[in-house]
Structures are given as structure tokens and as C-alpha cells.
């Protein structure tokens, strides 16, 4: 059942939430966010939060820069690496122009429109996600080097695989955020790991959270063994998708949506 704005307001009040991150992606897939005090959340749901779109590459020009964020309450999740006192939650947002018209540069909104078009054609889009990442040693200043954490490969076990503990912590954190990793394992390359997410309708909203979680866990001494904190670089996501219907419908849908 989808959560409503009132559900989130009740959660904020009952769970000592102090800050809310309103999150969106630019046209390159990079996450951006606006942080609010939790007391401002009712206004965000009712009126939206304005921001300067010209400061985001590829969004708006200076003359017509105003855009509005509308938080989606069904995407709310607690960020597990933030303090439990004065919690922080994150919500993904839809983006509109000040007149309420959907902003065409909103990748999330565009994907929603494509899914609706596919559904109208009798198609169901199935998406699976594999978040792959590399773990590297660091130098004396804590900066990542090009030396892999280990020399293990597919399905290896310790001591060849030295990333077991950090993958475990990453999966715990991902699960706390409401995602459901199916499995985790080392890959063929030195220092490479993977966490596979299940096939769920909310995958597009869940993908951006995985790289953030992975990067956070390489530098948060409260979560991981210190020898493994000094690892990790940006992750890469492998997307597997398919349309389910007869062959002719699949071809026409891809031509129409592409």
C-alpha cells in the first residue's frame, strides 16, 4: 500500500526526524538534493519547494530558472548512516514548472510517462538491477589508489576475498533503506563486488541510493571494520530489463518509446 503525506508526517513526529533530504537527479544521473528542517515538510507537501534550475547543468537558463520539487511520500526512507538522534530521511521528488506543468528534464517523470505508455499497449516492464563496485587501498592521506583491495575473483572466499565484511555491511544498510538485495558476491576482477537487487517496480528510485550507500560505508568508521573503510570508488549499475507480451507488441513498444 502506498504511503501518504500524512503517513510520513506521523513518522517524522514519532521518530525524532529533524532533517529531510528532497532528492532528484540531473540529466546525467547525478543525485542532487535540498535539505529541509522537518518542520518545513508540511509546506513541501502542500506547496512544493522552489529552487533555481539554472544552477543544475542541462536544466534551465537564467531567465527562466524557477522549478518546483514535489516530494513523493512513498519513496521516504531513513538514512541508516546518519545519527539515530535527530534522524534524517530522504524522499525522491517530481519536478514541475511554477505553473504546475511537468518539467521535461525530469528523468524520473519521463520514465513514468514511458511506463504508462507501455501499460496502455498491454505491456509490463520488468527491471532487475546489479550494483557493481570496486574496492581499493588508500594512501597515507586516505585517498584511493589504483591498488585493488584483494586479488580474488568470482565466488572466492577469504583470504583471497577481503571485501566480505564491507559487502555484508552494505547489504544491511541497503536493506534498512527498504531495498531487498538478493545476493552479494565477489566478481571476476580484482577488488570488484556486486549486490543484486530483486525485480521490483521501484527499481528506478532505488538504483541511485546504492552508490551513495556504498561510498558512505567506505568512509564511516561507525559501520565497518577500519581496515575496510579505506576502500571503495564510484559504483556501476548493470540494468537488465524486458517487456512482457507477444513479440509484435514488444517491437512496436520499443519503436514507440525510443
Question: What does this 3D model show about the protein?
Answer:
- The protein has 8 helices and 12 strands.
- The two termini are 31 Å apart.
- It has helices at 5-14, 41-47, 107-120, 164-176, 203-206, 209-218, 226-229, 247-257; strands at 17-25, 31-37, 49-52, 66-71, 77-78, 87-96, 124-134, 136-138, 144-148, 181-186, 192-197, 236-244.
- Strands 1, 2, 3, 4, 5 and 6 form a 6-stranded mixed sheet that branches.
- It is globular, with a radius of gyration of 20 Å.
- The chain has 258 residues and is an alpha+beta fold.
- The model is unreliable at 219-241 and 246-258 (pLDDT under 50).
Task: Describe the secondary-structure layout.
Layout: H1 5-14, E1 17-25, E2 31-37, H2 41-47, E3 49-52, E4 66-71, E5 77-78, E6 87-96, H3 107-120, E7 124-134, E8 136-138, E9 144-148, H4 164-176, E10 181-186, E11 192-197, H5 203-206, H6 209-218, H7 226-229, E12 236-244, H8 247-257
Parallel strand pairs: 1-6
Antiparallel strand pairs: 1-2, 3-4, 4-6, 5-6, 7-11, 7-12, 8-9, 10-11
Helix pairs in contact: 4-6
Amino acid at each position: 500500500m502506498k504511503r501518504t503525506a500524512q503517513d510520513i508526517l506521523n513518522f517524522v513526529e514519532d521518530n525524532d526526524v529533524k532533517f529531510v533530504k528532497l532528492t532528484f537527479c540531473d540529466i546525467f544521473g547525478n543525485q542532487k538534493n535540498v535539505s529541509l528542517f522537518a518542520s518545513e515538510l508540511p509546506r513541501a507537501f502542500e506547496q512544493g519547494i522552489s529552487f533555481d534550475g539554472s544552477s543544475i547543468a542541462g536544466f534551465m537558463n537564467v531567465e527562466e530558472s524557477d522549478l518546483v520539487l514535489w516530494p513523493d511520500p512513498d519513496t521516504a526512507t531513513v538514512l541508516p548512516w546518519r545519527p539515530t538522534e535527530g534522524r534524517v530521511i530522504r524522499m525522491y521528488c517530481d519536478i514541475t514548472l511554477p505553473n504546475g506543468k511537468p518539467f521535461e528534464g525530469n528523468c524520473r517523470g519521463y520514465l513514468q510517462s514511458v511506463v504508462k505508455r507501455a501499460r496502455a499497449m498491454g505491456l509490463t516492464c520488468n527491471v532487475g538491477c546489479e550494483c557493481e563496485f570496486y574496492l581499493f587501498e588508500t594512501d597515507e592521506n586516505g585517498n584511493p589508489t589504483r591498488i585493488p583491495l584483494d586479488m580474488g575473483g568470482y565466488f572466492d572466499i577469504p583470504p583471497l576475498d577481503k571485501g566480505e565484511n564491507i559487502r555484508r555491511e552494505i547489504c544491511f544498510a541497503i536493506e534498512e533503506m527498504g531495498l531487498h538485495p538478493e545476493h552479494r558476491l565477489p566478481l571476476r576482477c580484482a577488488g570488484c563486488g556486486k549486490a543484486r537487487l530483486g525485480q521490483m517496480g521501484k527499481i528506478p528510485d532505488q538504483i541511485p541510493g546504492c552508490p551513495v550507500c556504498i561510498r558512505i560505508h567506505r568512509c564511516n568508521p561507525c559501520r565497518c571494520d577500519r581496515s575496510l573503510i579505506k576502500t571503495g570508488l564510484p559504483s556501476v549499475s548493470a540494468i537488465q530489463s524486458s517487456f512482457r507480451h507477444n513479440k509484435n507488441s514488444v517491437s512496436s513498444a520499443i519503436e514507440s518509446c525510443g
